[in-house]
Amino acid sequence: MGNNNIKPFIIGIVICSLGAFLPVDMLDSTSWTTYSSSDTVVVNDVYDPYTLDYTTEMEIGLHEATLVQIGNLCYEEDECTDSEESSTFSILENPYIENGPIDCIKTQEEDEIELCEAESAGAIGHSIILGGLGLLAFTFVLACIGVMGYIPGWVLKLFSSLAAIAIFVGPIAWFVMFPDLNSEMGPGDDKWGLANAFYLTLASAPVIFVGGFVFGRMETFAFEEDDDWDDDEQDFDEVDDEYPSFTNSMSRPVHTEYEQPGQVDVNSQGVWGDDGYEWIEHPEGSEIWYWRDQETGQWVRH
Fold it and tell me: Is 246 contained in some domain?
């Protein structure tokens, strides 16, 4: 019966591990929300006019942000030069802010306040997701014990479900607390949007749910086997206790009163017969009679 737990154990571990891989990988990703804009600038320089096409892409994650600037500079002689710059930095240590790292307690700048709110939302989302991953790791430990039949499957399903809920709630909490970076955008402006890290983290929760339901098929049997073993030991002890008494009774010779004639208590009182002797039947109903020797006082078998 123990082998019945091996299959759901392996399948559950594989499915939950695949589900856990996504949020683990997304924790350090900056593609939670992205912004992209393109523009063209024509410079009519008297000596050397040129056209500049550039694209700005920015990603913000839970703790870090990435800025990518791609440019294409073309002169009238059809000479073009491509350039690309990319940098990843902490949200509060944005190099494009003049005053250096942001002090969220003292700052009064609206842009810096938004970045502080983004960092706070990321910290809360990160903590919730990390808590869910911790519950899932604890589920794996319980599953290793459960495969031997000591933990019922519903316990594993419960903890894995709680882990999936936490991992699903983490991105939602981050999204709710994240500042609205599109509040000052116009109707035709490019907007910030949710990106793949957000959606992949959400998608991992149903995968972990499925793995938890597979864990739920695991059964407990170790305690039943222990009880059966205890019952066997108890039955053996009972038999063992009875065996000595049985063997002793078989080994001892059975001495009945019929086999011990003459062993009549001298203090026993008989009846006086017409012959002048005192008689007693011992045992009663055995038709074995004894007479008392007047000289010795002992009973003598007739």
Answer: yes
